[in-house]
Amino acid sequence: MSLIAAVQLLAAYHAGVLTAYLLLRRISPSLALLCLAFAAHMLANLVTEQAQLPPQANITSAFGLLYGPGLWLFVRGLCYRQARPSWRDLVHLMPALTVIIIRPSDPWPQLAGLPLLIGYLVATFLALREHGLLTRQVRADDDRVSLRWVGHAFYAFVAIAIFDIARSTFPAGLSVFDDAGLALVLVAVTALLTVLAWRTRSHVRDRGALSPRGLDAGRAGAASKPDDADALADFARIDDIVRRQELWREPRLSLADIARIAGGNTRDVSRAVNAGSGGSFSAYVNGLRIDAVDAMMADPARAGDTLLALAFEAGFNSKSAFNRFYREQRGETPSRSFARAGQAREADA
After folding, report:
1. Which residue ranges traverse the bilayer (predicted)?
2. CA atoms within 13 A on the CB side of 186
3. CA distances from residue 335 to 313, 330, 346 in whole angstroms, order as listed
């Protein structure tokens, strides 16, 4: 068995294991379908090469038309809690099925699939953008469920694709990357699918997808106006409750939590917070946390505490989130403020 055949077989096996894991653990049916498509693609390549099938029997080009919709359905499931695959999504298989039935010669399947791929990528980008904007409106720990890692994975896939295209287009200049280069591409794709499965498990565990109620509340907050008198009156009441009960100390504080404690629905609370604070729900809550950290920095009784201990006590659940929000709010790193606060305490002593 050749190197490429062995790598394709191992990649198909690993992708099949990922498919079973994602389905049995009910993590992401959409990512499971994407892994299944990759596994079937590897097996189809292997059968075509080993059996030396004629060109008219080769259906491997159809698999390239599955990755665009597969990516879109995967990201849609990460962004929206109710967006699970249904029978209506079978329409996304039509281009691939058409290629299997008609079997046009290359490069027609690739040329026909390019505008479809662009469309799916645009839809994916818009979904990720909306998730990022609206998550800030309904969760204080939006950094924890951020989907920036999906963008990083996408750039990695693009880099792999560019390398593979260069290897195929200039075989003479990159002869050293012939079989070894293709094997490297398949290993890299398999590794990326594994990373996606791992990160998706964490995202599902943290309930990072937006619920229908969260979508409605987030959109209402994003559309609120600072001159809304009713919203401003509600914010004065809500802000008093949040500060008096120190609700910001809860690391996973959500808009729904405040709506339940303060009374009212999430849509109205979202409008009130945005109108009264001039920013998103996340910015409002994390601003209160940073104020608390600054107050603890200046307290002589807390001189022995570490900066991270103060951040966790104020409600932050990760060092990276604390550093990012502090720089955004204060324009400098928290360690610099911490050092200056220590110097001020020593000067007062």
Report:
1. 6-24, 31-47, 59-75, 149-168, 180-198
2. 27
3. 16, 12, 17
For the chain, what percentages of helix, strand and coil (3-state, to nearest 5) are there? 80, 0, 20
Sign of the C-alpha dihedral, residues 147, 149, 151, 154? negative
Structure tokens that stand for 228 in this block: 């809304």
Check if the beta carbon of residue 8 is closer than 8 Å to that of residue 183. Answer: no
Domain ranges of the chain: 3-205, 225-348
pTM equals: 0.88
Q: Convert the pLDDT of each residue in 156-175 to its tens digit.
A: 988 888 777 676 666 555 55
Q: Which long-range contacts (CB under 8 A, 24 or more apart) does 233-238 make?
A: 234/264, 234/268, 234/269, 234/271, 234/272, 234/276, 235/272, 235/273, 235/275, 235/276, 235/277, 236/276, 237/262, 238/262, 238/269, 238/272, 238/273, 238/276
| pLDDT exceeds 60 at position 208 | yes
What whole-number distance in Å separates Cα of residue 310 and Cα of residue 316?
Answer: 9
pLDDT in tens, 226-272: 888 889 999 999 999 999 999 999 999 999 999 999 988 999 999 99
Its sign, for the CA torsion 65, 68, 69, 70, is positive
Average pLDDT of the chain is: 89
